[in-house]
Amino acid sequence: MDSKITMEDIVSLSKRRGFVFSSSEIYGGFAAIYDFGPYGTELAKNIRELWWKTMVQENDNIVGLDSSIFMSSKVWEASGHVDGFSDPLAECKKCHSRVRVDHLLEDAGINADEKMSDEEINKLLKDNIDKITCPKCLSNDFSEAKSFNLLVKSNLGNFTGNWNDEPTYLRGETCQGIYVNFKNVLDSSRVKIPFGIAQIGKAFRNEITARQFIFRKREFEQMEMQYFVHPDDAKKIYDVWKEKRWDFYINILGFNKKNLRWSEHENLVFYAKEAWDIEYKFPFGFKELEGIHNRSDHDLTTHSKHSGVKLAYRNPKTNEEFMPWIVETSVGVDRMFLAVLTEAYHKEELEDGKSRVVLKFPFKLAPVKVAIFPLMKNKENLQNKARELYDKLKLKYVCEYDDNGNVGKRYRRQDEIGTPYCITIDFDTLEDNSVTVRDRDTMKQQRIEIERIDEFLNKKLN
């Protein structure tokens, strides 16, 4: 990542090159909701697939799940989301916009504990009012803060119009679907403690002041793994997963270590035994990217109590019965997407005095792996040869065929979407059946025989 990169740079490129669009843009947009464009869709897919490969495919004792977005309201009552899943909101008395008080305090350099009562956070607001301003009108005259529940209500199955009569919710997090399916997975597969359940899925939160582009959204996607362990092994396994998740960013994604750091939760929720976040240096500063948490036996114990279903585990060898503890790893697709985009973004000054913007994605994450160019658009023999190679490679790699403009301009377009290799079919190709392959990062070119192109790309992919 270039240290001079701003959020304006990221947002501008995302729109210009089809990575991220504002939702419902032709109707003026829809706050804190975004759509992935053609290249964003490919990048997000590659992120999911890489996470799934390293989490599920490469671990013998981790299995997958795809639980429903809608669940019984009793799930959310048991988990504490109905009563305790809230943010403190205050209203600016000048412009009447609602703002999260914890965000106001955070922007002023003041840490607000998420467990604070309304009275405590209002005192903190009052004591620091001179340091706080409304982000919209810059006033510092606010109403008292009140808790606002983040669960998104739905009228699914509600034919009376009474939203207080057994309300249904869009899930506020994906992990509850894992907890309530713990027994089903255990009974239907060959897993034994310790084992994990991984899931990728949408979650919804009624954020009032979602901000910082796709970092905080109202509709987002989570990649979570809940690892069920014996209580005596929880600390040791927790430390192992901390190391594994750090390694993922350094050695799998290739992030620069200086852009990552650990942050320990200073004020743990009552059931947690340990919680650390991996923070990434976004253009707006270090913020949480992924959380690794030791959740004790709280989740299964709570759902067992409220449902009346026994969720304790019996060791088939020793006959010991215990309630499993849970080690959780949780990261948002959107946040990892933004981190990957930021890490890849580079502005470079070239020898000819010009500059370029290039996204230096790892080959496995690049939305387009290779672009094929005929040197000239109006030469049918070059077009045919280029199309022949394109039709062959597209069966294995995401490719683009581009014959619009001169080759230099085509290179710049592919640089901005992060395509690792561009292949040009020229007149020499018709004679020696070799092509010019241009490397995105070094901009160096080499001649390679067409029959060796697949071998060359396959080595880069693996």
Would you kindly provide a written description of the structure presented here, covering whatever features stand out?
With 462 residues, this protein is α+β, with helices and mostly antiparallel strands. The chain has helices at 7-16, 38-57, 73-79, 81-84, 101-107, 118-127, 175-180, 182-188, 234-252, 298-307, 333-344, 380-393, 407-417, 427-432, 453-461; strands at 20-22, 34-36, 62-64, 70-71, 86-91, 98-100, 146-149, 152-154, 168-170, 195-204, 219-229, 260-264, 274-282, 285-294, 313-314, 321-322, 325-332, 345-349, 355-359, 370-374, 399-401, 421-425, 434-439, 445-449. The protein is globular. It folds into three domains: 7-76 and 168-341, Bira Bifunctional Protein, Domain 2 (BirA Bifunctional Protein, domain 2, 2-Layer Sandwich); 86-149, Herpes Virus-1; 368-461, 3-Layer(aba) Sandwich (Rossmann fold). The protein has 15 helices and 24 strands.
